[in-house]
Amino acid sequence: MTGPDDSGIDGIVEDPNGDFAAPGTVQGTIDRARHYREQVLSSIPGLLVHRGGRVLHCNRPAAQLLGYATPEEVLALPGVLALVSEDAAFAERQAYEQCLAGVTREDVRRIKRQRADGGVQWFDQLLEPVDWGGAPAVLETLAQVRPQTGYTQMPHQWQLLQAAIDAMPNGVLMLDRDIKMEGANSEFLRLWDYPPGLFPPGTPMDVMLTYNHQRGDYGDVPCGPIVAELASRFLVRCVINAERHVPNGRILDIRTAPRADGGYVVTHVDITDRKRIENELREAKERAETILKELRETQQQLIVQEKMASLGQLTAGIAHELKNPLNFVNNFAELSGELLDELLALLGPLDDRMNAADRADAEDLTASLQSNLRKIADHGRRADNIVKSMLEHSRGGGGEWQTADMNALVDEALALSYHAVRAQDRGFNTELERRFDPAVGALNLVPQDVSRVLVNVFTNAFYALRKRQKTDTEPDYRPRLTVSTVDCGGTVEIRIRDNGTGMTPAVIAKLFTPFFTTKPTGEGTGLGLSLSYDIVVHQHRGRFDVSSVENDHAEFTITLPRAIPAVSLGERRKT
């Protein structure tokens, strides 16, 4: 083992005063750290053996160094981390885990330990994996900090200054005007995980930066440019703050301040715990915002369901009220037809007593009556079918999710809407073009609610077609509504395009706003598209897209997912 006064180490030159001059190369700094390690081993060290945090062995020198009377008191501690101060626990736990995994570190670590009396003391530490009782364990060697030879030869006031700097809770690095190291405290060595004795006073800053690069601090980048860039920061004489992640996992806030004599004071504050708390608070805030978003979405769904339930009850009530008079109309039309046939059978023998003109008039009247009764019966049955569709449209067991054929649902809603418009305006006709994709198949949805959406969009399309038909001066204008379904894999698109009046961008911007309507007073409530948007976007997690050109066309695209995502808000595009 090389003694403290030997000078046969590469890169290290002994000066006449017995101290070691600052090495000029990285290899010289590494050799100096190895020499310091041999000095530590030459003294009587304290020995600790532990595994998984549990102390297995402690010799008497280790107990005395830590301020305990006997090794048994150390063995009685809850774990080896009870000897470690809170701010150093993270780095020590990481070092123990690496050592237990078989990673051997040749140089010395500067660490601090909690003494029995509650004080903190600095030690030089060596870690080595060993086999203890047939299982891997950590052998920890502790020795008192050895002062550098040059420090003992300093004047007393400088020794006091060095002792004060060494006692500071933050890492301190002193640099002279030539960017060479003047001194550093133990906390600086611990935070950067530098071996004690690695960088003596006089070490150039570029040697320290090159050492950092060689151990991988700066990643896979060329050494020269990064060292030159970091060293150039000291050319600007001002206070500089920076944040750095060091190899042992700590996050440091580094503050470089110029001194009046041309040198620098570089302080290092460990902000790892603060960053961890900030990250936890940010994650907690994000979780809270996600939960709030889910609650708002759930609330919106409940509101939509309540609206749909009320609308369904209203529709069902109206349909029921209409069904009773329709039953009377249909029944009495059928009965009147039968009575007319009986009357004609009774009056048949009297035909010979009438002249030709009267007989022609009677036949004309009876033919008209029979034709009218057939029309009443036909239209009564048609109205009855419409009422039945309205009842089916409003019924559905409280908005239950069911599997429904999408093409059939769209076709049924189209027929219902067209019948309703034709009932209001007998002179209205339009060309209906159906382009149904057979691959669409069945979807899991609330059929009654989706049917309401489709009826609403169809009704608005027919309104736009009728309006343009009445106001358009083009003689060759022909109303046309194109309805298509498209299988898009995970989603299904329903496209409804009309060549009606279209919409301006200003109207599209407010299209889904509750109570907004372009229809005259009394013809629209402004709730239809708002409710439809809620059903598609919030209830079914789909999309409601609108594109339009005024006086040319309007196209609504409803996109419904085949599988409803757990948490997702749909959106609409307006083009």
Automatic annotation (TrEMBL):
It catalyses: ATP + protein L-histidine = ADP + protein N-phospho-L-histidine. Gene3D superfamilies: 1.10.287.130, Histidine kinase-like ATPase, C-terminal domain (3.30.565.10), PAS domain (3.30.450.20). GO terms for molecular function: ATP binding; phosphorelay sensor kinase activity. Residues 1-23 are annotated as: Disordered. Residues 274-305 form a coiled coil. GO terms for biological process: regulation of DNA-templated transcription. It comes from the Bacteria. SUPFAM superfamilies: ATPase domain of HSP90 chaperone/DNA topoisomerase II/histidine kinase, Homodimeric domain of signal transducing histidine kinase, PYP-like sensor domain (PAS domain). Keywords: ATP-binding, Coiled coil, Kinase, Nucleotide-binding, Phosphoprotein, Transferase, Two-component regulatory system. It holds the Pfam family PAS_7. PANTHER family: SENSOR HISTIDINE KINASE (PTHR43065), TWO-COMPONENT SENSOR PPRA (PTHR43065:SF42). This is histidine kinase. It comes from Azospirillum doebereinerae. The lineage of its organism: Bacteria, Pseudomonadati, Pseudomonadota, Alphaproteobacteria, Rhodospirillales.
